[in-house]
Amino acid sequence: MFxxxxxxxxxxxxxxxxxxxxxxxxxxxxxGLYALQHRGQESAGIAVSDGRAIEVHxxxxxxxxxxxxxxxxxxxxxxxxxxxxxxxxxxxxxxxAQPLVVHYQKGMMALAHNGNLTNATELREELxxxxxxxxxxxxxxxxxxxxxxxxxxxxxxxxVKTMMDLRGAYAVVxxxxxxxxxxxxxxxxxxxxxxxxxxxxxxxxxxxxxDTVGAEFVRDLEPGEIVVIDENGLHSRPGLRKNRSSxxxxxxxxxxRPDSTIDQINxxxxxxKMGIELAHECPIDADLVIAxxxxxxxxxxxxxxxxGLPFGEGLIKNRYVGRTFIQPxxxxxxxxxxxxxxxxxxVLKDKRIVMIDDSIVRGTTSSKLVAMVxxxxxxxxxxxxxxxxxxxxxxxxxxxxEREKLIANRLDMEGIRxxxxxxxxxxxxxxxxxxxxxxxxxxxxxxxxxxxIPVSDLNRGKNxxx
Amino acid sequence: MFxxxxxxxxxxxxxxxxxxxxxxxxxxxxxGLYALQHRGQESAGIAVSDGRAIEVHxxxxxxxxxxxxxxxxxxxxxxxxxxxxxxxxxxxxxxxAQPLVVHYQKGMMALAHNGNLTNATELREELxxxxxxxxxxxxxxxxxxxxxxxxxxxxxxxxVKTMMDLRGAYAVVxxxxxxxxxxxxxxxxxxxxxxxxxxxxxxxxxxxxxDTVGAEFVRDLEPGEIVVIDENGLHSRPGLRKNRSSxxxxxxxxxxRPDSTIDQINxxxxxxKMGIELAHECPIDADLVIAxxxxxxxxxxxxxxxxGLPFGEGLIKNRYVGRTFIQPxxxxxxxxxxxxxxxxxxVLKDKRIVMIDDSIVRGTTSSKLVAMVxxxxxxxxxxxxxxxxxxxxxxxxxxxxEREKLIANRLDMEGIRxxxxxxxxxxxxxxxxxxxxxxxxxxxxxxxxxxxIPVSDLNRGKNxxx
Amino acid sequence: MFxxxxxxxxxxxxxxxxxxxxxxxxxxxxxGLYALQHRGQESAGIAVSDGRAIEVHxxxxxxxxxxxxxxxxxxxxxxxxxxxxxxxxxxxxxxxAQPLVVHYQKGMMALAHNGNLTNATELREELxxxxxxxxxxxxxxxxxxxxxxxxxxxxxxxxVKTMMDLRGAYAVVxxxxxxxxxxxxxxxxxxxxxxxxxxxxxxxxxxxxxDTVGAEFVRDLEPGEIVVIDENGLHSRPGLRKNRSSxxxxxxxxxxRPDSTIDQINxxxxxxKMGIELAHECPIDADLVIAxxxxxxxxxxxxxxxxGLPFGEGLIKNRYVGRTFIQPxxxxxxxxxxxxxxxxxxVLKDKRIVMIDDSIVRGTTSSKLVAMVxxxxxxxxxxxxxxxxxxxxxxxxxxxxEREKLIANRLDMEGIRxxxxxxxxxxxxxxxxxxxxxxxxxxxxxxxxxxxIPVSDLNRGKNxxx
Amino acid sequence: MFxxxxxxxxxxxxxxxxxxxxxxxxxxxxxGLYALQHRGQESAGIAVSDGRAIEVHxxxxxxxxxxxxxxxxxxxxxxxxxxxxxxxxxxxxxxxAQPLVVHYQKGMMALAHNGNLTNATELREELxxxxxxxxxxxxxxxxxxxxxxxxxxxxxxxxVKTMMDLRGAYAVVxxxxxxxxxxxxxxxxxxxxxxxxxxxxxxxxxxxxxDTVGAEFVRDLEPGEIVVIDENGLHSRPGLRKNRSSxxxxxxxxxxRPDSTIDQINxxxxxxKMGIELAHECPIDADLVIAxxxxxxxxxxxxxxxxGLPFGEGLIKNRYVGRTFIQPxxxxxxxxxxxxxxxxxxVLKDKRIVMIDDSIVRGTTSSKLVAMVxxxxxxxxxxxxxxxxxxxxxxxxxxxxEREKLIANRLDMEGIRxxxxxxxxxxxxxxxxxxxxxxxxxxxxxxxxxxxIPVSDLNRGKNxxx
Lengths: 466, 466, 466, 466
Description:
Chains A, B, C, D: In the C-terminal section; belongs to the purine/pyrimidine phosphoribosyltransferase family. The structure is a homotetramer. Chain A is α+β, with helices and mostly antiparallel strands. In chain A, 30% of the residues lie in helices and 26% in strands. The radius of gyration of chain A is 23 Å and the shape is elongated. Chain A has 18 helices and 23 strands. In chain A, α5 crosses α6 (139-149), α10 (267-281) packs across α11 and α10 packs antiparallel against α17 (430-437). Chain A has two domains: 13-243, Aminohydrolase, N-terminal nucleophile (Ntn) domain (Glutamine Phosphoribosylpyrophosphate, subunit 1, domain 1, 4-Layer Sandwich); 267-440, 3-Layer(aba) Sandwich (Rossmann fold). Chain A has a seven-stranded antiparallel beta sheet with strand order 3-2-4-1-10-9-11. At the B-C interface, α1, α2, α8, α10 and α11 of B face α1, α2, α8, α10 and α11 of C.
């Protein structure tokens, strides 16, 4: 299998939830997940509840592959949650698909999670000492076991106590006791927002899913907040004291859909502003600005407009790149990048080019792109990146790469420039990024190693979404 | 979907286990399950252990559908267990597939189970009160949670204590702590036997699986026995005091493969003897003896030989009857039975026929078969059954039907005869059956309602294998 | 892939046709093919016609795999034909699936064929010289091109002229011009019979398919006959002068279903009589007669009854042997035969055994079976075969093996006995076989090389059904 | 199934061919087709030839779904051709997949075709009168039957004579007699170009496929030209007298990949120029220019740059829109367009918007997009189209819609504006389009009804690619 995501961090998970008696909640969740598909392509699942019994269907693949009309029609309920997941290979893949559904002393519960706990190993050990058995390697199973540990409390109180046990990044949706719950960690690393469709409420990782199901955006969950959605509407339960908010910067840089707005920042606009900042930081006398599509496009437009330079489609993306593909043999390895992206020689020939991408992880793809642009006739290639150098791993739910493989950790700026083969190389500064985002309340740990949430050594090897 | 098993009790589950470092344990387990396929066609699974980590692959369908060579090759280990399962429909089918694999405080454990607990509901409640969460509706998950409840004991002691908690029928294989364990309930309702392949040992629901993998039959597990198989060979741990043995009579009558020998009784021979007993109990002046294939064949041969009557292939079975099939529409409902069995008019025409079947559950198929034989030209049809009337449900792992649907519970003998349309009808007597089996140590509860193991009211609705 | 058919000739093809306006002809054809599944498991297809337009669905696999209820429901028409096919591997498999449907000058035509033309190569060349292009390697395409060559004639006349061109074995069903046609070659090698369902008629390779769809058997087609079925019922068009009939003996010995009656001979009865003949030819003082199931069973019963010997289930067949299976590795090659057949030691131990099989082709499986029976404790194994030695290849639609691989061609009787390891070996004589069949009008070419229909050298390498 | 192509003409077919002994021609063809996937997503096929025997694999679905590494590895040869196809639904879909492979008098031949013959019906009739039978409804089968009609000529001469018979649009690749042939119709409606990889040559519908396999662009085939590629390299055989070239304008407007260059015109650049022309024809005082992605993007950039207006990502496309999708129920019909495209309110709010799309066919989608942009807060929506009004059907291989459904045929400009709900509406003029393309040698029949190639009445209902 050929990795088409090339050299990018991997999207992790997306969640959706809706409480809407007398509506087709499974179908709405299906459309919601469809809009969140970019957050995870490996497995998908939907659980529905009639207030007591919970049914679930999950499978490997895209939302459109896992669900058929027949399956959706047979998932009846008054409320539903759904999940899309990126995960690594292994025989237990399906077992780890979400939502996770359990029977416990008070009935049934379903839970779906985006993020990564940084004390999961310790919590597993502690629960194991008390007799818990685990059938998956997901954080979701840890969270559920914690909730049932507090089964003598009311469910809301149990959720608060559970959040006091948890450390890390999490955006969680839960079906239990005739209610839909949403939880967001006290740093608000992973996004979760509230929508309103008619008189009913829903929850989603990104606002684009609200648009898709025809719901109005209400607001993001506060860091540390618990929301409860039921027959009486929505109410908020102050969960944990809100820390300084640390929204993941990479959601804006690369992950989230351009039409989503997260914590008051529109993704497309933030990318445009990153391009403007790059123009201020590094104005280049070039003939044409091009983007590495799709995530680099807005930044490239911002850069070009600011400097009055023309923007052109210098790199074209094959829209049919799928998840399965026959790996090129060694002799055809050159084919690799070209299957996804092709240089448009007519546009590039004899020009001095500014090429804008959102990030460099290992650098291998970048060097091929620069070479491809040169081969297509570009006289100069100036490579601008709309994120600072990625030099530290993420422990909050994003799969970058091991630290040793990050090019920014291995080489200095001149070394990277030589490696990718550009005439010049510029990364946006942290200050420029913060200006583009218009806030300092973001997590920049993968750039500067300043982790807002502690990570125990035991958990450093682990970073599985869900 | 058209139910091709017609009017028969449903096979439930089969288990297999092997400890054989340096051999292909997954492949051997695959072949073992293949030989046990008749015990369950809905799902199959194999778990392998290298002594610490356990990997599992399971899926819906036949063994040959669930596993490919590629999958088998990638299941490495020194020991393995496998499971085939019959189960009812529902969206959570795959979740209930076995073996069940868990992480617990002491490491990993895999477990597969044939049988049915009669106090599972109480045990689930008790465990739930202590915080256990259940992701399946299987007894296996109950058993695993009990074992981990005794995690402060040695594993062998924990198994003994667990068996003290369990009530019902169970034959269990477990991978844990570098050992393969086998457990059989104190009444020995469900079969489990030991084989030896070279210097290594294996466990199987039926001896035919030992033949298939090239292992020698050693012996059956004693009721209440625990066997431990590891680097040092096999040793027996007296588990619970052995009750009076109560092997399931239906294993001999219908379920087990003819070439299996269970608790010293060869299945094919026992069926032949049932036919001999029927000949003594009910000799009929007929022209031809025929069987409802395949399970009625040995009895019919015994009957014919005893009375010096010719045996003929009066009913022919379609060997390609599969699990999926397009349901005949109402107008073609008549087609139903004929797709599986066809009367051979050349053989039947103008003859007085004795037709032998192993059992009648609801009676609907029997009446169609009698009519089919008549339509093919038989002058008389005498219907003999090699089991006593099935009048009570089984709670020990066999899916017969609800009591109200059992024809022997609804009608008297003459009523049944009229319903099926036979000229005469005879069921083997309990005494005849016991004579044929050569022992009184069998469970006849489904015939006489005398349940050797108590069944609490809470569990009467439940009878799921595994 | 492991070849589960072991060492048997391969079944070839089966055809079915029905004319029944206002009935579900596709569904009836589906059930008819289901009953003929033993004649071909590699591909299946159904074509329906409303009298003008023809629709077809075909695919690789069993009838139950190729068709869903949805597909059957969408095949509307007043008449239909269907086909099941055994064929060899290759990338063009599906292209060769039948029925073949074409547009020609007069409209559409669909055709399905069982048998093998012995002058196909010459006909292809001749047609090619006139500009014909071929998209498959089937005889069906040759036949269709011949029919259209005579397009200036009426269709019935064209069929007669086509039959004058054809040499070989063929049983053909055709949909064209609002009619269903059936053709049988002048030697009647391959079977084809007529059924009546209410006022409507159908055609089938074997009578068991008529039973399955609820049709009455009317009669077999005469060798050389053409039947035309339409709104006016059925009429016969004398096609070619009937040669001496040469029904394929192997249909009775091994291929056909026991409940079928072909050319007035019931298959099951003929097998019983083969056993009786074997008893006369070779009475053995043994303790038990066993069969190699399933095709050897009737012969073994005939043998045992005649000599007053007990019959027992000494070899048990795994009923779940499917088409796909993981090949045993070299070390486990011993597993091979045991996956399909297992010796029942309880029945065989310390006995002198007569084992009856229908045929020996290469002899490899036979030697394993004898060894297996011995290992299970048999004191003596006498091996009786209900067919004469297979020493010549079939060119009329049956895939035996190349001549050099036929054991009867390589070794003398004593050599074969030693090879298979039996204490004694006896094949039924040709005379005995003819007595059992009660006719001399059968083709025995594979036994004695006396080919009733000439085979040109160009066609000796070719023997593809359909 | 939900039609995600919304209201666009349907892409038709793409072809690829390569002659390269000792290279993996099937794999290279696979990559070539991958780059041409946008030209047809319904079926894909590859045929390989070793100079004599031809093997083919084809199937329904995307290139990545039809082929596995295993299949590609087993397609050996010195040359190959491939095809991707868009086609309508029906049970005979697979039969129509290409390449078509035949045996004819001189050996084997494989052929793949993009375009549509306008005298196919007449040619079929004529061939049928001479006894030809057709198994598909494709033009390819007609072309092959014509070629074999001239089998007494050399193959090159037969191709010339065949081209004299053909009327319509066609780009054809053929494997026969150890050679790879390419044919382009005398008007050059459909594209076909030549590439060179090392010393070997290949053919492709678009130059982007040459880039992908690492071949250099050599030139486009001349209208009416035949090229022959073999061991001796490439030579051109003047086929038919070249007519005035009439390249399909829609290739530039919508179909072709932006990085392709067809008949000296780069697609991306031509779209940019269409935007510039639109700016001259219809300058609007707006706040933001947005595109309907992806094909409208280049035009929008050209428009914005020319007028000094900002360009923004106002409509965002879901990148995971697949071929299969659960159709929204009636109540959720509103969801339809939003699943594919979402308006980005942050970007659009309170702005006067110019929205640029490539074409309007029925107008239904356009009205939803305008409404969506308004609902997202746009104060004004001016809708500009980079093609003239589509008022006539295409008979040369593009599936637009029946004439009565074309909105430009039903309403006048003001009527269309009202229907789509825009504040103003402007289509590019024919003159503007020709200026943007820089040539008059294009087919504009769908805009002005001036068909360069005659279409007989019999063929007006037919327009199937391949």
